[in-house]
Amino acid sequence: MTPKDPAKKRIGPILEILSRTYPNATCALHFKNPYQLLIATILSAQCTDERVNKVTPEFFKRYPDPKALAKAARNDVEEAIRSTGFFRNKAKSLQESAKSLIDNYGGQVPNTMEEMVKLPGVGRKTANVILGTALGVESGIVVDTHVKRVSGRLKLTKQADPEKIERDLMKLVPWGEWVAFGHQMIWHGRQICVARKPKCKICPVADLCPSAEL
């Protein structure tokens, strides 16, 4: 993308409208601390937030901190998260991440992207969720399936790879608005710019969207 890209001209009004439309947009996963959001975000892979939120209350009672989770029997952890899907791989990532927190970070979730992505089961998307939502660190922009779809339809990027999409969005969106923008795009993707048939006729950014079907 170049400075002359039309997305540069549209991004200001788009940000304004999204902020006005979704002033309270935030993470849909329920958590009380960075450790809990780490667990919930790993569980959310290939699973709905609603399902994760049903599983985590009991999970956090059983495993309230990294130490409790790291020393738990693998079969018990798997059974506790079975309904989220891919439970064997997720249980492995959860316990290995918990062990890494204890061994390398004093039981605390690290506050940099460089350290976050060293945790098993944590990529840039998961790291951005935790850093931005639980720790208030503007490290990047979350690119999930909703953000990928909406940013493509808005022609804010021509990329298909999430990390390349994120780089394009970070060039367009001012630092300090990255976390809010990610949440707003996710809400917009869930409520209006849905996958099968976007609701263009009621979309607040339709006039700024090259893909709008009015």
Low-confidence stretches: none
Largest sheet: none
Number of helices: 11
Strand content: under 5%
- Highest-level CATH class of the largest domain: Mainly Alpha
Q: What sequence of helices (H) and strands (E) makes up the elements? A: HHHHHHHHHHH
The geometry reads as: elongated
Explain what this protein looks like in three dimensions:
- The protein is built from 11 helices and no strands.
- By secondary structure, the protein is mainly α.
- It folds into 2 domains: 6-26 and 142-208, Helix-hairpin-Helix base-excision DNA repair enzymes (C-terminal) (Endonuclease Iii, domain 2, Orthogonal Bundle), CATH 1.10.1670; 34-134, Endonuclease III, domain 1 (Orthogonal Bundle), CATH 1.10.340.30.
- Helix 5 (74-81) crosses helix 6 and helix 9 crosses helix 11 (178-191).
- The chain is elongated.
- The protein starts with 5 loop residues before the first helix and ends in a 23-residue tail after the last helix.
- The model has no long low-confidence stretch (mean pLDDT 96).
Could you give a short description of this structure?
With 214 residues, this protein is an all-alpha fold.
Topology:
Layout lengths: L5 H16 L12 H10 L5 H14 L3 H5 L3 H8 L5 H19 L7 H4 L7 H11 L10 H9 L8 H11 L5 H14 L23
Helix pairs in contact: 1-11, 2-3, 2-8, 5-6, 9-11
Give structural attributes.
about 210 residues, mainly alpha, Endonuclease Iii, domain 2, Endonuclease III, domain 1, 2 domains, elongated
